[in-house]
């Protein structure tokens, strides 16, 4: 290996590690898919806004994991805002899975709630 290649190796390793770190949730979904066969749109509800970056991340997560969900924009729907207040929403997104209310985009909490919901509705 020549000197130039030796100098670029740490940069290449850093780029690969950065890519893996930034996309770990996708890798985790591929290695540990979420069971979604028994899920219906009404089992997962997200209260969100159109501009929220964490809402965008939650949408992407649900789409990547093929999780059906219903979304309500709390700024565009008075009814959605009332329901959001009723469940003590603080910030967005607020994700309701079964009887669990998750404040913010918290992947481990979402996965745990989905697993519990899947156990509640065995096939």
User: Which percent range describes the beta-strand content?
Assistant: 5-15%
Mean pLDDT: 84
Helix content: 40-55%
The gyration radius over C-alpha positions equals 19 Å
User: What is the number of helices?
Assistant: 5
Instruction: Summarize the biggest pleated sheet.
Output: 4 strands, mixed
Show unreliable segments: none
Helix and strand element order: HHEHEHEEH
Q: What distance separates the N and C termini?
A: 57 Å
Structural class label: alpha+beta
Spatially, the strands of the biggest sheet line up as 2-1-3-4
Approximate shape? elongated
Number of strands: 4
Describe the oligomeric state of these chains in a short phrase.
single chain
Present the secondary structure layout.
Layout lengths: L2 H20 L1 H8 L12 E5 L4 H12 L5 E4 L4 H9 L7 E4 L2 E4 L3 H14 L3
Parallel strand pairs: 1-2
Antiparallel strand pairs: 1-3, 3-4
